[in-house]
Design goal:
By secondary structure, the protein is mainly alpha-helical. The protein folds into four domains: 49 residues; 87 residues, no CATH class; 56 residues, no CATH class; 29 residues, no CATH class. The protein is built from 15 helices and no strands. This is Transposase IS204/IS1001/IS1096/IS1165 DDE domain-containing protein. InterPro entries: Transpos_ISL3 (IPR047951), Transposase_DDE (IPR002560).
């Protein structure tokens, strides 16, 4: 994630595109950056940690974290309840629906529980972005959002999402290779062919999915059989889930005879 934050977080944030609350957050980020740079400058000049603490007034822990590279700070707007609605909002915006109140009402009808002000802030940011000739504020995505963007078809992405993916692909080629590796593994599962499994393991051993590859290799026989076999343990897992549900309904008070009666009679 550090490489992604560096790719997305640097030279992307334009204060003109920020709402008032985000500007306050951005100012705090700039202050932290100044603190980090001041501490690093003193350390490079040969100043000891004790002297840096005295001169700057910061705690010893903070100074040590900065010098050890454990306080890398990248500006990102906070996760919002609106995040899961962004594809829908972008689609409606591109279709010409630019009234924040009308958008909020449509979202409420579809189950959105947030306040009108959240949608109004998003609409304000979109207008500012268009005035600045940009597609929107890029912020460092969460791992979950990143996984969705990187595995989605390009045709299904909004303009700002497509630009974000392009930035990441250009700056983090290892992530593109990892996406390709996962895609190839999924293709083997869908085609029920394990002929290229050994070759796939060798080629992806040093990639970002190395831990996953190691797990596959440790249980290679089971994985190979799972790919080529028509059988599934879905029925077993479903019955286990059913038993757990029945026991929860009885607050855990389920001896074997009572549990058997409930299962048979259900």
């Amino acid at each position: 994630m550090r490489q992604i934050r560096q790719a997305v977080g640097n030279n992307v944030v334009d204060p003109k595109l920020l709402t008032y609350a985000e500007k306050l957050q951005y100012e705090g980020y700039l202050r932290r950056q100044e603190t980090n740079e001041a501490i690093q400058k003193l350390a490079k000049s040969g100043t000891s940690i004790r002297q840096i603490v005295r001169q700057t007034g910061h705690s010893r822990k903070l100074v040590r974290d900065v010098l050890r590279g454990q306080r890398l700070d990248f500006f990102r707007t906070r996760p919002s309840i609106l995040d899961s609605w962004l594809p829908w909002l972008n689609e409606r915006w591109e279709a010409g629906s630019r009234n924040a109140l009308a958008l909020w009402r449509e979202m409420r009808a579809e189950g959105f529980v947030g306040q009108r002000g959240i949608v109004a802030q998003w609409a304000q940011r979109r207008r500012l972005a268009e005035q600045a000739g940009q597609s929107g504020l890029m912020r460092t995505p969460s791992a979950r959002v990143l996984a969705r963007l990187m595995t989605s078809a390009q045709d299904g992405l909004g303009t700002s999402e497509a630009i974000l993916v392009a930035v990441i692909e250009n700056n983090v080629p290892e992530l593109v290779a990892a996406r390709k590796a996962i895609g190839e593994f999924q293709s083997m599962i869908r085609s029920k062919s394990a002929a290229k499994l050994d070759e796939w393991i060798e080629l992806t051993r040093g990639s970002l999915v190395a831990s996953f590859v190691n797990g596959v290799e440790k249980d290679l026989i089971a994985v190979r059989n799972a790919i080529i076999s028509p059988w599934s343990n879905g029925q077993t897992e479903g019955q286990i889930t059913r038993l757990k549900l029945i026991k929860r309904q009885m607050y855990g008070r389920a001896k074997l005879d009572l549990l058997r009666a409930r299962v048979v009679g259900a």
